Structures
1.
Amino acid sequence: MSKYLSRRTMLRGMVGGSTVAVGLPLLEAMVNTNGTALASGDGLPVRFMTYYWADGINIDLFEPAVTGPDWQLSPSLSPLAPVKDYVSVVTGLRNLCAQTKTHHEGMTVFNGYTYQDTGGLNSNSGGPTIDQVIADVPGVADRTPVRAVHVRCAKAESTDGDGGTTYSAMSHRDGGGGNLIAQIPMTDPLAVWTALFGEFVPKPDDKNLRTSILDYIKEDADRVKNTVGSADQARIDAHLTGISELEAKILATPPSCDLPPEPTHANSGNPEPNTLTAVVMAELIAYAFVCDVTRVASFLFKKFVSGTSFNDANPPIAGNHHNNSHSGPSYQPYIDGIQYQMARLSDVLQVFQNTPDLDGTNLLDSTIVYASTDCSTGSTHSISRVPIILAGTGRGYLVHPGIHYQGTPWNGNHGSPNSTGNTSDVLLSCLRAFDPAAPSVGGGAPYSETPLSAVIA
């Protein structure tokens, strides 16, 4: 006979005088008899993640030719085929940042504020990003042990000397009194693991001891399994098996998991294993979402203007992606790099799609992913027609299957000043999934109080 379990139940153990804790997936013993809410009365969790890819797009190859529900994947978007039903593409809207500084203004698409100019190629974020605004909504971050998790794949830094918080982080939290706190993303999967699943560093030089967590929580796992039904027992076993497989994958990730978080050499670690790293980071976030360790994440694939080369592509893509973007939108290595980045986004979304939730759905059904880049045409740094990809449904909040919404028809003039609308409208649409009464998002020229209703179910 199973009993009610709190959604906060953790499997715990001791090693070297330290407590180890591992979260559980959502179990039948944690929800009401209909499976529509937690037994405590709270609704089933909705998750949110921002995703950033760098250095723009080739508009002709990126924007789908047809709008509405019958849209088809464009050449650049073709890697998203396995998750297409969960994807809506928004094009033809304008990033209304009031000033420009190459790529820096592009990050307004994640917060709805004009950046603070600090001189040269430096700027600070002008306001809190949408992920942090959502985390502040009552019932989101205050229900989880970890407020939000922030990850980054490619480790290369700027080749042009860009700096400031706009460059160093894609996520910024309102610290009060006009202060913003940059949420620096983690590049080391083991650091992400530790941040999400417990303070567990008994020996910094002993990888096996650092990651063999399951051995230490086995006794508590057996105790909990004896209190729940057979279906929940099977879910716990599957969950722990998945964690074991993820541990092995983290240890196998080249280069060494002991890489410093902030490499300064553009070629450090090349070829960078971005394909594998993206999947490992996505699996960590997926486990954190399913275990309700956190409901908010940001995923920075690579920094703008970085010296990242996609050497792990097959075949490797010549040159670094930022430099390739300045060879023009039709330069083939640039086009290949855009498609490579879309493939990595697809990998992340497929991890979510393949992660089951208790109600018979998958993680994309309960998550909203907001993905965008810092410009439209990379060689001109244009912020007209900046594309936005929305994935997931947020438990039925977003339209499903997805659509292509185009604010202004494309006229073939790269960087057209004729685009209309406001990318911040999409931010407000996402915010209202968590706070239906939210009146607005952003401030100044990019401010919005009009959500994009076309993407809302």
2.
Amino acid sequence: MKILIDNGHGNNTEMNGKFSPVLAGSGLNIDSKFTNNGRFREWKYNRVIAKELVAKLKSYNIDAELLVPEDRDISLSERVRRANTVCNKLGADKVILISIHSNAMGNGSSWMSGQGWEAYTTKGKTKSDELATCLYKRAKQNFPGRKIREDWSDGDIDKEADFYIIKKSKCPAVLTENFFYDNKEDLKYLTSEEGLHNVVRTHVEGILDYI
């Protein structure tokens, strides 16, 4: 089984909503590896998680790699092309893709109330739903006391949206939103040592369960 880890966005992604409000005066002390120009940057966090996730999977002798090793943003069409090249070579049933993101309720201008962890698959029943269910199971175990955002309207726990990368990839694919970086409580947690460990752990264990 080949595991492709996609880290969302890039260092040239400066659109509203891909960074936190200004950290000065917030009372938060966020590690500089996640920040630039006084704000938390989603693309930087995604890459930290993705790299640690790939390394952890490899420690279990699982074939895992970054879909986007570059720091710059890579187009969704190119990301999908890379994923489907692997699928065409190995067979789509031998590949899974997880796209790593963090969430935001606003556009980075102010602190918001949205909180929690969630995962998305495309609309309809697919193998992606099975992978998402494994991730949700581990999220509930590894994030005790924290909000897990669910949607049971279609009979399973994950949320559904036709995000380009998970819709166009041939293999089972899930997009995870790892807490809200424009919520102070979530941001403090997701950048803490405990939060980082549990985000990576949730993905690793969910992938192992699925395999």
